Amino acid sequence: MNWKHWLGSAVLVCGAWMTLTASTEAAPYEVQRDDQAIVGFYDWETKQTTPYPAGLSKYLVLQGTSYEKTLFLFQDEYNESENPYYLMDAKTGTSEQVDMPDHLHGVQIIDENHLVANSFHDYHVLTRQGSKFVISDTVTDDRSPSVRWLSPNRFSLHRSGLADWYDVQADGTFKKVRSVATTDFSPLTGDWIVDLSGAAVLKNVETNQTYELPNTRTQQSSQGAYETADGLYFQLGERDTSKKNMSSSSLYYFDKQTGQIRTLVDYSDDLARQVFHDGRVAYSVSGQVTMMSFADYLHQPIAIDDLTADQTAFLEKTVIEPKIELTRIDGTKALLALRDLVFSGNIEQQQGNYVIPTSPKRINDASYSAAYTAESGLVFRTKTDYQYKRYLTADLKQLSEVKEGLYTYKLNIGQPDVWVTATRVDGTRLSSALSDADGLLILPLSTTGLLGEKIKMTVGDDHFFDQAHTTEWTVKGYETPFLKKSTNNNFKTVTYQLESTVDGGTYTVYAGKKKLITVPAKKLTTLTIPYANDLETYRIVRSGEYASKSLSLKGSTMISSTLSHSALYDGITDEQTLIEGALDFDASYGKLYIDGKYTAYIDRKKTRIFAIKTKPLKVGRVVRLVARKGTQLQVSELRVVAAKNPTLKSYTTALSTRSQSWKMKATKGNTIVVTINKKRYTKVATGKTQTMTFPKQKRGTKVTVYAESVKHRKSKTFTLTVK
């Protein structure tokens, strides 16, 4: 970097004039503050702070700096009378009050005698005349361009796809150097830029030659460059939400001879803060800046890595020797001594050795970390995930048998935090449980429907233990009662024959919750119970030392066919002329009997719901339907009962000589009768409101109405006299 010499300018320091001087190769400075108050200038290289000039306000506003960050221009905006400017040398801590034209901003210090500033569309060179800076040259650019400084005395006015480069000359004038076609760029050094018009490319503005970056990027900014005779090192930064400081940097090397760009470091948050043109770099570590040469920079660590492969299986108590490899910015590698590392996580140090710990529980996410602190103060870490294994000592010695059904097995397997898994032979998972801190296992297991089958019980696994132990078990229990034969004995009793492959337990017949009979269960068992119309609700249960098995008698003894009757009567009425009913869907046929006399045959192939015509039957007679399905019979019977008197409700309350109708409602199927002078008018009742019509009658004529059934039962009679 070209660091300027002060040439003996006269400076007023706290009321006394003195000569300013500045050494070459000065490191950049930054303004150091305590809260908002300025306390001095921090030297990045020496890490020393030059005190702020005494006698000046510590709340001046920074208006501009030099490219090298050694000269600073402040303004006292709180001085309402003058708003004076102060030019300060950060290395010596000296200050000179200077006068500036009004309404300037964007100040850049070229040297102690020249400044650049702008006002609206005008860009000015200001040249010192004593303690005043006056405008010596102006460039007007009405594009409202952005200003980018390329070197201590070169800048760019950039807008609308074109960047005009200007030099500030020693005589205080502008000199246009070139125009560069680009929509966006980031300056590097000399004639090199990163052109960001599209995908980022390295570009030489002198030759207009471009070179593609190894990785496609679009949003980059320069963090400095260092050019040698053979090539160009340049560092780019970009926003990166995956990093802790929300940004990452990449370092590249361009070989001038081959025209190739090589990535030295990609997407890192451990690169230098700034690369300077003179071959120095600045690191920022915990808010402190460290300067070093570029050669030392290339030799700095950039990452460490454990050569142990992730997910390597380590058995407890195993002694390991991690091999931690250091990678430098230049790509060279070296193994680090373990004494230079700090380990943490699932690892123990015992007598100078690193050992996999012993744990009473599984470690699902086992890992250890190694940390290395470089001379720069940067800390590099690597994390190694491994598969933690324990020795398996658990067993199922306390398990004597596996029963069919849902059972909870409580066993002490002798080791905590061990999975036990039950599966079918084909691998289908049945259940699993984890032993507690005392080695107690509580395993709920359902083996319903697996009677006689083999299942597997696996203790441990190959992932968390040195082995897994699997045993086979035959599921024991009772068979579901098998109904070999059922006999309906004249609808008085039903006899069942049950078969089983083994003896044991008992058979119990239940009618709902009521026990009817209990007998020992043998290979062939016969039991008889009284016949009931609700046999389909019965069940036979086999019980004993194993899970109970139940057989529902629904569908195994009787089918379901019915005779229909009105909800008002508990049987068929003596006025019905149709016997109605329905056969079971699975019935073969049905036969209708009246007082035991065969009356009709119902063919299920032709119909299921039937209506048989008949004359009104006498009270007390029995109508019986016998339905058959294979060897099963079902009887449904109803008695004939006396019908009730019909009902009639009148809605007409008066008749006149003009009346020709009567409005009423009567029981469906009965006959409505209107009588006038012994003449009857009739109509069959629909069960809904109806109107009976008749001729007009003379005053004084009596009209009666009532309902009558087929058995001549009558309803209440209503009589009205014509008015």
TrEMBL record:
<protein>
    <recommendedName>
        <fullName>Bacterial Ig domain-containing protein</fullName>
    </recommendedName>
</protein>
<feature type="signal peptide">
    <location>
        <begin position="1"/>
        <end position="26"/>
    </location>
</feature>
<keyword id="KW-0732">Signal</keyword>
